[in-house]
Amino acid sequence: MPELPEVETICRGLQESLPGRRVKHVEVSWGGCLKNLAADQFQSRLEGCVFGGVRRRGKYLLLQLEDGQTLVAHLRMTGGFSLCPAEEPLRLHTHWWAELEDGHQLRFRDPRKFGLIYLLAPGQIESFPPLGKLGPEPLSASFTVSCLTSLLAGSNRRVKEVLLDQSKVAGIGNIYADEALYLAKVQPTRPADSLRPAEIKRLRRGIRLVLENSIRSQGRSFSDYCQVNGRQGDYAPLVHDADSAYCPSCSCAIEKIRLGGRGTYYCPRCQR
Ligand SMILES: [Zn+2]
């Protein structure tokens, strides 16, 4: 599932090439991904529009249009955008595409069909409920040690579950929660309010480090995710689903457990 680094990579790819391009025509082959409009409304409201800036908030992509509308996308399990010449063959599971005036197409593809697309009227983005519920951005300046301390305080939920809660911290999913806890040397099953100040400091650092490293590698390399240019990412997880199954630091076997229904990986020796 694309998490913050993958969504950020797609965001940067779109931001590099999309602003200023006009939509000539829109085709919808499966309208089920369109959550607030019927396919014909989506088409007519998007045709003729010029793309503005592209932003990310948590795992949401926000594609601004110059007329004030916003195209909001949540990729969920397998959603993704590509930008390619119109003559490139359409891949299976491409649910809609926008023909741009310069002969390229912006395509939305999603084999598992869990992705969400909204086309919001001008002004609607400010009060769009899913965005209002999101916690702080972990790479922002406001995500300080005291911010993380207060997010964990008074909660006896397991620390990994708090990290996965988008209303606490935005953008972290199953992979990067495991990676950040590994770097922080904290077991994922620890109650959130049991972390000592030094551990919280390490956890904040671990979260930022792992997200920055993955963004630098254009996201994780796995089959369901690719960048706007069609290439995969290069980030290889340290413990989560690691091929070696051994801790890169102490060579102890990585443990796999189920936590809240999610596969969870950690080193029983390094993480306490
Ligand atoms: Zn270890």
- Main sheet attributes: strand count, strand direction, barrel closure: 4 strands, antiparallel
- Count of DSSP E strands? 10
SSE order: HEHEEEEEEEHHHHHEE
Associated small molecules: zinc ion
From the N-terminal CA to the C-terminal CA, the straight-line distance is 27 Å
Assigned CATH architecture of the largest domain:
Alpha-Beta Barrel
Shape category: elongated
The helix fraction, in percent, is: 25-40%
Mean pLDDT: 96
Specify the CATH homologous superfamily of the largest domain. Answer: MutM-like, N-terminal
Report the radius of gyration as a whole number of Å.
20 Å
The fraction of residues in strands falls at: 15-25%
Structural class: alpha+beta
Stretches with pLDDT under 50, minimum 5 residues = none
| Tally of discrete structural domains | 2
**What's the arrangement of strands in the largest beta sheet?**
1-6-7-5
CATH class (first level) name of the largest domain:
Alpha Beta
Q: Could you tell me the CATH topology label of the largest domain.
A: N-terminal domain of MutM-like DNA repair proteins
Q: Helix count, per DSSP?
A: 7
